[in-house]
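fyi for ur records
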Amino acid sequence: MKLSAFSVLSLALALPLAAVMVRADSIDIGTAAPFGVLGEAGVTNTGPSVISGSVAGSTGTPAVTGFPPGSVVPPGVLSTAGVANSGPGTPFGDALAAYNYAAGLSGMSEGAASLGSGGIGGTLATALPTGVYSFSSTAVLLNGTLFLNAGANNNASWIFQIPAALTTASASSVEVVDTGSGPFTGTITWDVGSSATLGSTTSFLGTVISLAGDSLDNGATIGCGRVISLDASVTLINNTITTPGATGGCAQTTGSGSGGSGGTIGGGGGGTIKTPEPGELALLSFGLAALAFLGLRKSRARSATI
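which gave:
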């Protein structure tokens, strides 16, 4: 079938609109949201770590050591009594509910994909669009830089389902590219079935929710997120963690900028179709309407001359 110029142009304008629909939902972690660090079996820190967000163990194992020399930036609170570790409306209970929700998204059509076994990061040729990503291997290694493409959407979200351990090599990083204008308010969730270990000087983005213990090696940073161990402890060594909503968090403007002392947010596109802003949508709609009107007039004129 031969397409008219109008049909071709209409498709070209409509395809970017379809890209808006491909995204993952943000994960709501409820009362765990203000926390930068939650360790069910306690939190241990060495060195001048800086946490922009609250820090706590559970009421059963509340020990939090190493503060000082570590510090918690107000309005974050350092809890010495711990917080409730079960049930809805409690930090650990809500974090567990978020973990289970994210884990149950496997097989969803909204961008769901399996990344298979092996490492991620430098081995990927293109930036990952928003979506739900599952891994077939039991242990996942981030080696190099993992690029995430926001598709010009400042509320973009990614969910990574990892069946066992998550480990990052030293100096690895996560970077969000092709953000829209204004502050970035998206989310990145790492649903980890075992332990998470961030290698030294790793520049990470997102919230890690794990079933086992978490360790941040010397100089590792987390931006736009937090680290939560549901069943074990969290170990920190000279780290910086910035929680969304605490002293800026993810609220970075377009262009290169740190995700709150973690990975980088902003930068160029990753080779995907740009998602239109609301003003652009209006222009596209106007253009389609004008083309339809002109096409109708041309059709009537042709009919009148026959």
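The chain has one domain: 36-265. thats all i got for now
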